[in-house]
Design a protein that fits this description.
The structure holds two protein chains of two kinds. By secondary structure, chain A is an alpha+beta fold. Chain A has one domain: 2-Layer Sandwich (Alpha-Beta Plaits), CATH 3.30.70.20. Chain A is built from seven helices and nine strands; from the N terminus they run βαββαββαβαβααβαβ. In chain A, the strands form four sheets. Chain A has a three-stranded mixed β-sheet. Chain A is globular. Chain A starts with a strand and ends in a 26-residue tail after the last strand. By secondary structure, chain B is mainly α. Chain B is 73% helix and 1% strand. Chain B has ten helices and two strands, in the order αβαααααααααβ. Chain B has helices at residues 5-8, 21-44, 47-68, 86-110, 115-140, 152-174, 181-207, 211-221, 226-250, 256-280, and strands at residues 11-12, 282-283. Chain B is globular and about 65 Å long. Classes of the chains: A alpha+beta, B mainly alpha. At the A-B interface, strand 2, strand 3, helix 2 and helix 3 of A face helix 1 and helix 4 of B.
Chain lengths: 240, 291
């Protein structure tokens, strides 16, 4: 079993619902976003804008796992790269080692609160109890591992049952995000990747990310192997 | 809509040089300097040199590295994952050196020439070499930063550490320490020439490594890092020490103050090298080709 995600670039409407849902789900401090939207303009007078919803790629061969000196960043059996904040020493080697720049060091200035020095909102108070974030440690998207674990314990299927599916996937109004098991050839995401030539970002790093993009303009995916074509960097994403 | 420029353009790394990252820069340099001085002191069998190198590694390197950590009280956890992490291996090198070096210093002081002293010198020497080496390997292994992806980087860091070690050895010799001044000057002089050539080769290789690698080199030569590169690495780190070294070759009587100035310039050059290497390390853009 290896959890993965497909991002449909042609469906994303740039509504930021995934970013907001993640913030609420994990009570993220003000200065941190786990998922991010990357806008890329191409063309001249009438540019086209492509939007990439990016987050930790949960790489199969994750450089951050190898870099972590304490074992705080570790790989679960289901492919999710998790961070044990109680073990993290805040050396930031993982932040530097991630070629996708998808990890964040939580410093004091990133956790000042929504209204610093004035009031602490109820949302923040509840968050401190339910989902505490430790200043001085590193954070990143965890594919909502808590939801997946709780859902599986109830016999639910991640990607199909909402209670067991990451919050960003649930909330996406355009259904641009699909979640499921990459190792299951019959799962929806495996079929999407095969039928619509899903591709990974920067396959030349040999990290084998668990997030695929479809309907983009980079390379090809034959369902099993990364083709030579995919090893090229994109010339102009979104140009049509 | 806000575009995340750091994801669609080449962007330099900041965690290991900006703000508190300054401490890591000093720690990286102190490791090279202390390790290099210990190796040089082993060559000259200098107790003073070994003691100073031990202090540099235990106090300056260890201290600045601790200050840099987000959770310094958990530092002992860094030992947990040496199977894959060079940072963990480096920590083991440092801790082992502190312990083995302390025992060796005691043995050299109390029982010089004993078998125990020799064994501990060899062990502490291996650890000192590891300390000079591991920071270069850490950077070399970062896949997303083409400027660092070179086997030359660990070599450059090791040789710069040993060169700075020879420089400090000259200072120790001038102060009546147990080091041959002429031999220390010769070692420093040769390494200065080798390192200058190595820097040129390193920058040339990085400039043809990918678009981002070229950008990093341009950043050194013409960008924000240019003043530090030209002043720190080239002028202070290479030209002035080389000029003083040549003057000492021509004239047998060279003022002590000038020699000390040369060594200080070498050390500034070593600091500037690591600063520029860390500062110019840039990632490839996430979704677009670097322009």
């Amino acid at each position: 079993m290896r959890w993965g995600m497909v991002v449909d670039l042609s469906s994303c409407v740039r509504c930021y619902a995934c970013v907001a849902a993640c913030r609420i789900e994990h009570f993220l401090p003000m200065g941190i976003n786990w998922p991010k939207l990357v806008a890329l303009e191409t063309g001249g007078a009438h540019p086209e804008v492509s939007t990439y919803s990016v987050r930790c790629n949960q790489c199969k061969d994750a450089p951050c796992v190898d870099a972590c000196p304490t074992g705080a960043t570790h790989k679960r059996d289901d492919g999710i790269v998790a961070v044990d904040q109680d073990k993290c020493v805040g050396c930031r080697y993982c932040v530097v080692a991630c070629p996708y720049q998808n990890r964040t060091f939580l410093s004091k200035d990133k956790d000042k609160g929504f209204f610093p020095g004035i009031i602490q909102t109820e949302f923040e108070k509840v968050g401190k109890k339910l989902y505490p974030h430790q200043i001085g440690t590193t954070e990143k998207c965890n594919f909502c591992a808590e939801r997946i674990d709780a859902g599986l314990a109830q016999g639910l299927k991640p990607g199909t049952d909402r209670e067991a599916t990451p919050a960003c996937v649930n909330t996406c109004p355009a259904r641009a995000l699909t979640f499921g098991d990459l190792d299951d050839p019959n799962s929806e995401i495996s079929k999407l990747i095969e039928a619509r030539k899903g591709f990974q970002l920067h396959p030349e790093y040999d990290t084998d990310p668990s997030i695929f993009f479809i309907d983009g303009r980079i390379g090809e995916w034959d369902g099993k192997n990364v083709t030579v074509e995919q090893h090229r960097e994109p010339e102009s994403i979104g140009a049509r | 809509m806000e575009a995340h420029q750091w994801m669609i353009n080449y962007t330099r790394q900041t965690e290991w040089i900006d703000r508190r990252g300054i401490f890591l820069w000093i720690a990286f340099y102190a490791g090279g300097l202390g390790g290099g001085l210990y190796l040089v002191s082993l060559y000259f069998n200098s107790l003073w040199g070994m003691l100073i190198s031990w202090l540099i590694i235990a106090v300056i390197k260890g201290g600045t590295h601790l200050i840099y950590l987000g959770k310094p009280l958990r530092f002992w956890r860094i030992i947990a994952h040496p199977q894959t992490s060079w940072l963990a291996r480096g920590f083991i090198f440092v801790m082992s050196f502190v312990v083995l070096g302390a025992v060796q210093l005691l043995l050299t002081w109390q029982m010089p020439g004993s078998a125990g002293e020799i064994i501990f010198k060899v062990l502490a020497g291996i650890m000192a070499f590891g300390i000079t080496l591991y920071t270069g390997i850490i950077l070399k292994n970062v896949k997303g930063v083409p400027f660092w992806n070179s086997a030359l980087l660990p070599v450059l860091f090791v040789l710069y550490g040993i060169m700075s070690g020879f420089g400090l050895a000259v200072i120790i010799a001038l102060n009546g320490g147990d080091i041959n001044l002429a031999a220390a000057e010769t070692g420093s002089r040769w390494l200065l020439i080798i390192n200058a050539l190595l820097i040129v080769v390193y920058l040339w290789r990085a400039s043809v490594r990918e678009t981002v690698g070229k950008q990093s080199v341009l950043e050194q030569l013409h960008g924000h890092s240019a003043p530090i590169f030209w002043t720190g690495i080239v002028a202070l780190g290479i030209v002035i020490p080389l000029a003083i070294a040549l003057a000492s070759l021509i004239s047998s009587e060279i003022p002590t103050a000038l020699i000390i100035t040369g060594v200080a310039c070498e050390i500034i050059g070593g600091l500037a090298l690591r600063y520029c290497v860390l500062k110019a390390g840039a990632y490839k853009p996430l979704v677009a080709k670097a322009q």
